[in-house]
Amino acid sequence: MKKNSGRIIGIGILAVAAIALAAVVFVLDQKDKQNVAVVRKEPETQTVVSEDGQGATDYSSITYQGERYTYRKNLKTILFLGIDKNQDEVDPDHVGTEGRSDCMILFLVNTDDNTAQMLAIPRETMVDVEIYTMNGEYFSTQNEQITLQYAYGDSEKKSCWLTKKAVSKLMDNIPIDAYLSMQLEGVADITNLIGGVTLTMQKDYTYIDPAFSEGAMVNLQGELAKKFVRTRDTTAFASNEDRMDRQSQFIKAMVPQLKMGAADVQTFLNETSDYLTTDMDVDEIKSLMNCSLNDETLTIPGERVSTGDDTPEEYYVDDDALTRMIIELCYEKVE
């Protein structure tokens, strides 16, 4: 695992802002959840020791349905986290109050042709969340929405690391090479700084803002951009799926605009340094900025269920479908 390089400078960081703007969540009901175990069908692998000394699964070679596959050498994985963190709710005397990773997108980068596939992870995905004490010691594991794993870190770096670890486990233990997170409060400032992003409304979103009628071309800046990427109808079932579509559209519209322009890097750093946490260096950020994003954004396969009027939705992974997706995206068949 790389050393965290903290806040970074580089024109490539503008693309990070594009990704970050899609990360925001307006509401998370923090209710009690059913403690239902999710059993994953893991491919046949061998156990090795990871960099941090903990047991890990050897992802480099797997067997699935009698066929042998090897991990792609030209693959780089980058996890983006959009963090909803209300400072008024942070309580240093209680665990689980450090915010939530309400948007999670895994970028699978082909380093040969510099293309990237976006893979969205629903925030409601049910996984084994590791719970830690106030002293930072592991306490227990509980089946919860993956968005809550971030809350149990004692720093932004630790929270990102815990979420990165949870995503790796969800993805059949493939390595997550890097992460980048952005705080909610940075959205308006960043869009104002870069002049906004122009896109066409694919559906009627006038319930969010009167300007968001279907077919309308809108330049999204400041609070308007925040509305577009964060708002959802919390009274409607599966409303997060519609919001994920808007976030994906926003990213794909913004990245090309950034490639065509230039920016005062130092000014940008001064304006955004409080909002970003990453373990990537300048070259990695630039490389991400120059990637061509695939047209389609994939989503972890599964089923969304409602457990009742007073409890949040839960998303259960289709184990076999996810394993097939991971093999298709990350592995090559051994002939």
Describe this structure in words.
With about 325 residues, the protein is α+β, with helices and mostly antiparallel strands. The chain has eight helices and 17 strands. It has helices at about 15-20, 155-170, 185-195, 220-230, 240-260, 265-270, 280-290, 320-330, and strands at about 45-50, 55-65, 65-70, 75-85, 100-110, 115-120, 125-130, 140-145, 180-185, 195-200, 215-220, 275-280, 290-295, 300, 300-305, 315, 330-335. Strands 4, 5, 6, 9, 12, 13 and 14 form a seven-stranded mixed beta sheet that branches. A hairpin with a 5-residue loop joins strand 1 and strand 2. Helix 1 (about 15-20) crosses helix 7 and helix 3 (about 185-195) packs across helix 4 (about 220-230). It is globular and about 55 Å long. About 40% of the residues are buried. Mean pLDDT is about 80; it is low at about 1-55 and about 260-265.
Short recap of the structure:
With about 325 residues, the chain is of the alpha+beta class. It is built from eight helices and 17 strands.
Number of strands: 17
* Beta-strand residue fraction: 25-35%
Estimated radius of gyration: 19 Å
**Largest sheet: number of strands, sense, barrel closure:** 7 strands, mixed
Q: Helicity range of the residues?
A: 25-40%
Looking at how many chains there are and whether they match, the oligomeric state comes to single chain
Give the overall shape. globular
Runs with pLDDT <50, length 5+? Answer: 1-55, 260-266
Helix/strand/pairing category: alpha+beta
Provide the succession of SSEs.
Answer: HEEEEEEEEHEHEEHHHEHEEEEHE
**How many helical stretches?**
8
Distance between the termini: 31 Å
Return the average pLDDT rounded to an integer. Answer: 78
